[in-house]
Amino acid sequence: MKVHILDDWFDTLRGLPCFQKLKEHEVTVWTDHIEDVGALSERLQEADAVVLFRERTKITADLLERLPNLKLISQRSVYPHIDVEACTANGVLLCSNMHSGTPSYAAAEMTLALILASYRQIPQQVASIRAGEWQMGVGRTLRGRTLGLYGYGRIAKAVAGYAEAIGMNVQWWASDAGRERAIKDGARVAESREEFFNSSDIVSLHVRLKPETRGLITEADLANMQSRALLVNTSRSGLVAPGVLEAELACGRIFAAVDVFDQEPLRDRDNVFLTHPNVLPTPHVGYVTEDEFDLQFSDIFDQVNAYAAGKPVHMINEDVWQEQIAD
After folding, report:
1. Is the link from the previous residue into 265 a cis peptide, with omega within 30 of 0?
2. Tell me: the pLDDT tens digits for 198-227?
3. Whether 264 is catalytic
4. Catalytic residue (choose from 154, 206, 284, 314)
5. Catalytic one among 145, 206, 236, 314?
6. Which among 42, 194, 264, 290 is annotated as catalytic?
7. pTM value?
8. What contacts 57, CB < 8 A, 6 or more positions away?
9. Residue 214 burial by CB count (10 A; 0-12/13-18/19+): exposed, middle or buried?
10. Are strands 169-173 and 202-205 parallel, antiparallel or unpaired?
């Protein structure tokens, strides 16, 4: 099969063990990112299968209609960036391993790193010493502080383990079902949503972005946070209602550490998340490690091989496969 891999910006995959799984295929790796649908469709005209790097490229109806040879899209995890109905209408099978029970430890580690870097002013201290100065301020200790984890899922549970290991107190908030699971597991759940935001020194978001969770974190939630509290978002920017974090930051009352943005890549140097002194921004690197890539793309390449062998797995729109074999 002619397999095209999109958005491998640092040409990382060729050097990972999992890449050998594609040795029987004709593979093209694209190391840049293209937004223009016309240019992207020209690149992919010969592709039988497209491999996606998470949500870096949106798969729209307009794009799919220009790719008559495409039979398979292989990726991992959720797929809000893919028009599944358009895939089905154009005879393209979507395969995506939802990896139930397997958290992204890379994302969990990144969450802890952002918390540590924010509380100990690591970026500012590094900048100070590199500028020929010495200490630029006084950081804060995490031990004994309360970490509020919003979302009772796999990544959040990993973060909880790290936090407890360094002596932090962990409390939870989540959907009704999530809180029920947390209580059943003996976890500490806040008395109310208001109490959760008000009593947490740090609030970290770990919720999947879906239509029903978009704008989940409101102006009232942020206003209810303590002065000097820290909001951490390594999940998705759309979880926070539009403009409310920017407005709260403008008050200078809270801090934020954000790894995800509405527009990615974010290259607007005047964006408030890049200019405000209370914000620690990172360029969506929560899951970006060699180890995580090898784990994720091993699954993705297995899906390509399963399809080539006539036994596709992790099918999202299975009806397409039935139509393909019928043809």
Report:
1. yes
2. 999 999 999 999 889 999 999 999 999 999
3. yes
4. 284
5. 236
6. 264
7. 0.90
8. 6, 7, 33, 34, 40, 81
9. middle
10. unpaired
